[in-house]
Amino acid sequence: MGIALGANRYGKSGVHLVVVDRDVPRHTITDFQIDIRLEGDFEAAHVTGDNRALVPTDTMRGTVFAFARTQPVGQPEDFGLRLARHFVATVPSVSAATVGLRATPWVPIADRPSAFIADASIVRTAEVRVDGDGAHVTSGITDLKIFKSADSAFSNFHIDDFTTLAETDDRMMATIMTADWRYGTGDIDWGDSAAAVRDILLATFADHDSASLQHTLYAMAEAVLTQRREIADIHLLLPNVHHLLMDLSPYGLDNPDQVFVATTEPYGVIEATVVRDGRA
Amino acid sequence: MGIALGANRYGKSGVHLVVVDRDVPRHTITDFQIDIRLEGDFEAAHVTGDNRALVPTDTMRGTVFAFARTQPVGQPEDFGLRLARHFVATVPSVSAATVGLRATPWVPIADRPSAFIADASIVRTAEVRVDGDGAHVTSGITDLKIFKSADSAFSNFHIDDFTTLAETDDRMMATIMTADWRYGTGDIDWGDSAAAVRDILLATFADHDSASLQHTLYAMAEAVLTQRREIADIHLLLPNVHHLLMDLSPYGLDNPDQVFVATTEPYGVIEATVVRDGRA
Amino acid sequence: MGIALGANRYGKSGVHLVVVDRDVPRHTITDFQIDIRLEGDFEAAHVTGDNRALVPTDTMRGTVFAFARTQPVGQPEDFGLRLARHFVATVPSVSAATVGLRATPWVPIADRPSAFIADASIVRTAEVRVDGDGAHVTSGITDLKIFKSADSAFSNFHIDDFTTLAETDDRMMATIMTADWRYGTGDIDWGDSAAAVRDILLATFADHDSASLQHTLYAMAEAVLTQRREIADIHLLLPNVHHLLMDLSPYGLDNPDQVFVATTEPYGVIEATVVRDGRA
Amino acid sequence: MGIALGANRYGKSGVHLVVVDRDVPRHTITDFQIDIRLEGDFEAAHVTGDNRALVPTDTMRGTVFAFARTQPVGQPEDFGLRLARHFVATVPSVSAATVGLRATPWVPIADRPSAFIADASIVRTAEVRVDGDGAHVTSGITDLKIFKSADSAFSNFHIDDFTTLAETDDRMMATIMTADWRYGTGDIDWGDSAAAVRDILLATFADHDSASLQHTLYAMAEAVLTQRREIADIHLLLPNVHHLLMDLSPYGLDNPDQVFVATTEPYGVIEATVVRDGRA
Lengths: 280, 280, 280, 280
Prior knowledge:
The first copy, chain A, has helices spanning 43-47, 57-70, 76-90, 190-207, 213-227, and strands at 3-21, 28-40, 94-103, 106-108, 115-118, 123-131, 134-148, 173-183, 231-240, 243-245, 259-262, 267-276. Chain A is α+β, with helices and mostly antiparallel strands and 280 residues long.
């Protein structure tokens, strides 16, 4: 019984591309942090040290910057597709390329044409994979810290010997949302779609009468699938940023749902994919 | 020649207080991360293990939450003053108390009364010190990522044997601003003042014809002192988030100030205090 | 076409258990950071807000601490198995439980029986999954920063229009190793096996005549599989911590492979699984 | 009343120098992360945009690497002194230079001559300042995670309306130590002194019968000053990494000081400088 190479991939992470367009009255800033991974026939490199099939990760980095010059960069999904297709099409050993992107938006300061402030509340992500089955795009938003001070309960849950949590019909709910979704067929306006998904997720979070974080997660995802027909499925990852009601009785004080301790650890994590029926 | 205790202090860090006011049509969220430090006569605790002068850091934490219940929390500066004065006034061993606060604003989602999104672009800080000389308030803003795509040069600098940087009359400028300032006498509307300072700093950053990051720092600080008479001095800390023009010539491409590499290390750091004349 | 719940799971992260055994002449410290994830029939919780199938994540946390009292904790793998089996066996809705553990070793200070220093160079990890197919254990080590100052080349790689990297027959190699592996059948001494794997990985890294990081990765994995028959397959994740030869010619100096810039971004990432033939 | 520049400084951070000496049978690795700050007459740069007094931070970075080639780097303190003296001596506008260094030790893997593992348990720091008063060296060690499972009490402390902490004559004590110290006159063997200080701090932490973290801090510092005459004063910063005894009574279990929750926030912080009498 021998030993053999199994699944493997390699690439470059942390490539930080900033493109400035100053040929317009109001400048625009494109800010992408990019990770690239290649899969393919790299067995000789691993087993015998024959590197002829390996694209140096330095070349991946150079390709990012060169591509940013030769054509407009476009949306994260567009640029990821261009890069991923390039590696699969031009490097014989490469059978699949995955490009992850994180786009930080820069919005104008007041009405100034050439000064900007980063808007951390609307960071977009994309992951593009090109392989023998074609191109696969996942779009997302991340790091959205949201809080809900009404309409959140958690009761009637499973009880066992290790249960200490009290049931409640009124609690604070907070999370740092990461969402990513895949598209069905058809031409997609990536930026328009992401903005719409964000609005739907936020509005549903705000309006939902929540029995649990799972319950709200599903409502948020269902609203996206109902209102945005271009989206095939959506995955939400919702850490539960616990806000514990502080016991003020040692100080002779009551606490009518007013003073909370926000904790970082431990934390609950809820995640699910919601799909259109008939899809995986 | 003996050995003796010198300067010393202790306290609690990472106290995360969240207060929710639901007795109003539109709920409000107050979110403060708080550090407390006490100074005083703690020699016996150090030298002989006699703890009678020590307030446990657990008590400091409890005081934060109890105080949040007994009176409205108010602005970070208000709450810091209340806490710092309490320790100095009530604990005989304590001669000085310093309270640091970091306030995260939560803004309503759309027009909803009980759902919020954190606005990371306007985190406020405060440091309040109460000692034998009275109360000293420093207010600040932090983590403001800003970028300027025009009107920034860096040339005519000191040249020596280790100079490799080229002079430029047109470069990208980016920083992650931290500002803190002290007030003169008089009643201050802390929130109003902080918002005004933020606007002045941003507008000046945008409009300044910059010869260096130092030059822009001074212009920003000078504008604050000129326009806000209540402020006595201001300190700015500006890391230089370098955006290097990518050399695309290996790929046969030019790069007319368009494609940049954003780097994290190493980074320049510029800091200065700007004062009204006659003050330290 | 309707909308339905797809893959989903939830749990608690960041549970930090420390068990101190003082009933022995030399105390022992067990320090585990634990994440738990449950899968099962949670559709009603998501879709209708019926929580009866949900174990609160607070209960998961409590179970960790209670279990640490009722039996000796043992190795990370042992404790993970106990926890994962408990949730699958006792909660009707749960079909699979995954427990991740990170074990920090505390080694005695000098020869003292009750004082310890954390040894960050030998953090062990484990991931235990119990589902309908039985129990699956992955063991690992992580965060091992290693450096190799000889016998490392990278040349004869794929060349294209975006290649700028020079070939070299002598470069610095550095990485922060994460390794995880699965076992075949039989009783395993988890601690002994992990220590042996660590030694083999380090020795092979040191001795290998490397044509690339892929080449060294494979040699390291192959050595483990050759020498430790209990291991079925092993996965290595090796970021390439680049050490760039500094160009000192602007200062009129040569640099015979002596002065390097260590960079954090961008960075290469190499990963692969190496298996015994006939296994996936 | 005008506006004027107050205290100011600038420099480069995050310069990561690695020097490899391969002209010896066993290679050696020197790994320094370096921050440089300059003070001086930079008023024109700030006020009028005249940069002639400014050394670009890029030049500071280049100087680090060039200096690493022209002479042996030596200990962190040696290299910091060389750099700081250079800037003050050669740049007319500079009146003071401060160089901070963080040295990561790389220890040989087994007995190999050219392979290394980072030893995070003995990171050394230094801060060197050269100004009109001469050269000032502070040496230190940092990030030492230590734990003590016996001989630690905390009782008889100040009680007030906000006290909830119970007194205890037996608790766990853990901290992540940062120490820095200054030297008196005379030639110092920096490496030897730092190793000795580390051993004294650890042994005293282990052996001390502690009434509080303050009490142990003082004992540790006093032991250093008593045993190492070359050291003039020492500052210790000791966060209190709380290990809370878990209340297992909800599960029908006792907990005889055995099962603990390690928490990250909030945390106590204790710091003090201990001096030889007659010094500040």
